[in-house]
Design a protein that fits this description.
The chain folds into two domains: 221 residues, Rossmann fold, CATH 3.40.50.300; 70 residues, no CATH class. 27% of the residues lie in helices and 26% in strands. The chain contains eight helices and 15 strands. The termini are far apart. The structure holds adenosine-5'-triphosphate and magnesium ion. Magnesium ion (MG) binds next to helix 1.
């Protein structure tokens, strides 16, 4: 069995706020265990906590509770200096946006992580040029970030992330800003690193292709992993090929579409309990109000009509459950 490269236990994160809507609990007790060489996708609707999770896993944000272990070192216990060193050696990030230092040109941006590791400037710049060439950016090495398109900036960011030859890449919608052709090229590069160099990937994505690249996908909803999907995940219809997750506190979260089919929130009796099998029978579901999927998106007012989409096709918000009108 391969070694664990990244492990998180009981991860919670609360964004504190004095504003009217109060605190936001973005992560609610997540567990994750990632083996060296694995590629895992994190899928789920907008606001489910994907970016928060990535920041906590990468040591960029301290979770409110829980622990993160990177190559057998508990990050939550490291000092600032130790943390920086561990990150530099092991992991690279690719964010949704804002990856580049605005005052450095493309090649200096890409070379910077190597220089931080003490590599001589001339050598670092030469490697940066090679990396930029690999990403089809050879003609733009002297451009400042503000002069590059979104997709070009993202390619520079990817070059910067790869230059230190990290063992793990954490990427938050890495191809979100790229056109389909560039996106496919970047994915081919990731595949090469994954298959031939054993690099591990944890990628947040809404893209079919990116999710298909992963060995498995974890479905995040309202700050909890609700299910796991195998290699052929369909990001547009997560209700297919889903395995529910029961965590070690015994908690299982039912995705909203399953809850609807079961009859909604309420009390259930447990019958037929045996190893690997459980059956639930609705008790007084009716009296607690039957829940159905909302007809209208609360964020953008999109009308769902007959569709059983879980995610709003126009704004990406998670589709809530509402009490059925009788
Ligand atoms: N800095 C912050 N302060 C307060 N709340 C925040 C902050 N950042 C995120 N949130 C809230 O935390 C929750 C999770 O946000 P997060 O950015 O992790 O979602 P996401 O899954 O990455 O969404 P998207 O797909 O839109 O990028 C949301 O409810 C969001 O409004
Ligand atoms: Mg996000």
């Amino acid at each position: 069995m391969a070694d664990t490269i990244l492990e998180a236990e009981g991860l919670y994160h609360v964004y504190e706020s004095k504003a009217e809507d109060g605190n936001v609990v973005a992560l609610r007790g997540l567990h994750i265990n990632m083996k060296e060489g694995e590629a895992i996708a994190v899928v789920g609707p907008s606001g489910s906590g994907k970016s928060t999770l990535m920041k906590c896993l990468g040591g960029l944000m301290k979770p409110s509770a829980g622990s993160v272990t990177l190559v057998n070192k508990n990050m939550t216990r490291l000092t600032g200096h130790e943390l920086v060193e561990l990150r530099q050696k092991t992991v690279s990030f690719i964010f949704q946006e804002g990856n580049l230092l605005p005052d450095l040109n493309a090649r200096d941006n890409v070379a910077q992580p190597l220089r931080h590791q003490g590599v001589k400037s001339k050598k670092a710049l030469a490697i940066a040029d090679q990396m930029l060439t690999r990403l089809g950016m050879a003609h733009r090495v002297h451009a400042m970030p503000s002069m590059l398109s979104g997709g070009e900036q993202q390619r520079v960011a990817i070059a910067r992330a790869l230059i230190t030859q990290p063992r793990l890449i954490l990427a938050d919608e890495p191809t979100g800003a790229l056109d389909p052709v560039t996106s496919r090229e970047v994915l081919a590069l990731f595949k090469d690193l994954h298959e031939n160099d054993g690099v591990s990937f944890l990628l947040v994505t809404h893209s079919k292709e990116v999710a298909a690249f992963a060995d498995r996908s974890l479905e995040l909803r309202d700050g909890r992993f609700v299910a796991e999907h195998g290699e052929n995940v369909d990001v547009e219809d997560l209700s297919r090929d889903r395995e529910l997750i029961v965590d070690d506190t015994g908690t299982v979260t039912l995705p909203p579409d399953i809850l609807v089919r079961l009859g909604g929130a309420g009390r259930y009796t447990v019958g037929n309990l045996s190893s690997g099998y459980i059956s639930l029978q609705g008790e007084s579901v009716e009296s607690l109000g039957k829940m159905v999927l909302a007809q209208t998106c609360p964020a953008c007012k999109h009308e769902y009509g007959d569709s059983d989409d879980q995610m709003c096709p126009s704004c990406g918000s998670s589709r809530p459950m509402v009490e059925a009108k009788s």
